[in-house]
Amino acid sequence: MHKHRQTAQAVLTLCAMAFLFYAAKKADWPGSVTIHEEHLNIKGIPHDYDFMLIADTHISLCDDRDPELIEKAAARKAAFEQESGKKAVRTFHSLITESIESGTDLTIFAGDITDSAMYASIDFVQNEIDRLDKPYLYVTGNHDFEYGSEYFSKKAYRKYFPRLQHLTKTDRQYTVYETDDFVAAGINDKNNQFDKEAVEALLPYLRGTKPVFLVMHVPLQPQYENSALERQADDVWGLSENGNCRVLLGESACRPNKTTQKLLDAVFAKDSPVVAVFAGHLHFYNRSMLNDVSEQFVTGAGYYGDAVRIHISAEK
């Protein structure tokens, strides 16, 4: 009898261990992603389109090509895995698969795809993006080309940003994907400001007549006082030393310089063709109005497997 009891206890212990292992791994299985489905009606669009918005995957892989960052990369990777309960490389693979299998017309990467400009991270992302069979647009955030202590320094722009050129498909601080029906324009984050050359290059599109989807990493501050987005951002990230929102770009948040304000003026002009802004950075999902005519979509953190699919169709 005693022997049978020991056997039964051993079986129960093994079952419990198996269940815990199953529960721990289930959240990290391929396909463990959360896609927020949205619909956006645009006046004058003659065809339907599907966009996939991905940001903040924070891929942190490092090898002996970047020996000085191996320990930091491992620590960052472990921190993201502990927070999300998932491996960022698996969720990124699943997000790319989702974009392919759903027939997405344009996959949008809105910054912090890599956690640093390490060759191993860049190679991994490049190999995954090469699986896409349709166009993509890639902008950088505040982490993509940092490197150790070089965080938005002149050296980072000069030495490490060029590593990303195959991903961004340009050596400029902006990128444009244009069709007969719309313009998708991306601009890189430069410590919460925009590059002068990039702003000047995008202004003709922002003053044109073709609908524009503007892509950036840091979301814009809505033109409404006490907006729901700003309240949530303040709750999650706290306020700056001056008591302002520290994760949105706007007059009473991360204050724009003259160059950045020039682009914002074009975005918020009454006759602006900007119909939507796509962003990341906040690590939570939000859709809200920026002003009376344009909307903003902010995707949750990609290392959690979060993304947004936006179905674009003609306004009826």
What does this structure look like?
The protein has 316 residues and is an alpha/beta fold. The chain has nine helices and eleven strands. The chain has a six-stranded mixed β-sheet with strand order 5-6-7-8-10-9, covered by helices on one side. Helix 3 (88-101) packs parallel to helix 4 and helix 7 packs parallel to helix 9. The longest helix has 25 residues, at 2-26. The radius of gyration is 21 Å and the shape is globular. The chain starts with a helix and ends with a strand.
Primary descriptors:
316 residues, alpha/beta, six-stranded mixed sheet, five-stranded mixed sheet, 34% helix
Compile the SSE list and pairings.
Layout: H1 2-26, E1 34-42, E2 49-54, H2 70-84, H3 88-101, E3 106-110, H4 119-129, E4 136-139, H5 154-160, H6 165-168, E5 174-178, E6 183-187, H7 196-206, E7 212-215, H8 228-237, H9 258-267, E8 274-279, E9 286-289, E10 295-298, E11 306-314
Parallel strand pairs: 1-11, 2-3, 3-4, 6-7, 7-8, 8-10
Antiparallel strand pairs: 2-11, 5-6, 9-10
In short:
The protein has 316 residues and is an alpha/beta fold. The chain has helices spanning 2-26, 70-84, 88-101, 119-129, 154-160, 165-168, 196-206, 228-237, 258-267; strands at 34-42, 49-54, 106-110, 136-139, 174-178, 183-187, 212-215, 274-279, 286-289, 295-298, 306-314.
| Overall mean pLDDT | 91
Task: Report the radius of gyration as a whole number of Å.
Answer: 21 Å
Q: What's the main sheet like?
A: 6 strands, mixed
Quaternary structure of the protein? single chain
The percentage of residues in β strands lies in: 15-25%
Return the structural class.
alpha/beta
Helix content range: 25-40%
Principal-axis shape equals: globular
Unreliable stretches covering 5 or more consecutive residues: 15-28
N-to-C terminal Cα separation, in Å? Answer: 76 Å
Which series of helices and strands comes N to C? HEEHHEHEHHEEHEHHEEEE
Strand order of the largest sheet: 5-6-7-8-10-9
Report the total helices. Answer: 9
